[in-house]
Amino acid sequence: MLAYQWYRDGKAISYATSARYKLVGADAGKKLTVKVTGSLSGYANTSKTSAATGVVAKGTLTAKVPTISGKVKVGSKITAKVSGWTSGTKFSYQWSVAGKAVKGATKSTFKLPASALGKKVTVKVT
Q: Residue 109 is part of which domain span?
């Protein structure tokens, strides 16, 4: 039987105990190793640790342009919809009218004020 334990800069990663390991954000800038322990009834256990990887580089987010949906009418709410982003991404929003950020308009929905009438409304999602 083989048992696996992955390490990040020499510290055990508690949940990483299988032959495969999927990188996470905490790995960026660190080196990884894996220790494999073999056991068989009647024999002494044997462990070997791999050489360290190179320093793990930061990943790249994949993203699509957000869409805005809803009834475009003063007093109505419109919604920024995001799709195709890297799983687990957290978003922040900033709505703008005529190129100027609207103070406090930092949610995925935005109630169109009278001042937006006839002007371009955009949202920046980061």
A: 67-125
> pTM for this one?
0.55
Does residue 77 form part of some domain?
Answer: yes
Give, for all 126 residues of the chain, the pLDDT tens digit.
999 999 999 999 999 999 999 999 999 999 999 999 999 999 999 999 999 999 999 987 777 889 999 999 999 999 999 988 877 788 999 999 999 999 999 999 999 999 999 999 999 998
CB 40 within 8 Å of CB 71:
no
Number of domains comprising the chain: 2
Residue 60 falls within a domain, yes or no?
A: no
Mark whether 73 and 28 lie in a shared domain.
no
Co-location of 33 and 81 in the same domain: no
Alpha carbon separation from 66 to 63, 75, 123 (Å, rounded): 9, 22, 8
Structure tokens at 31: 């080196």
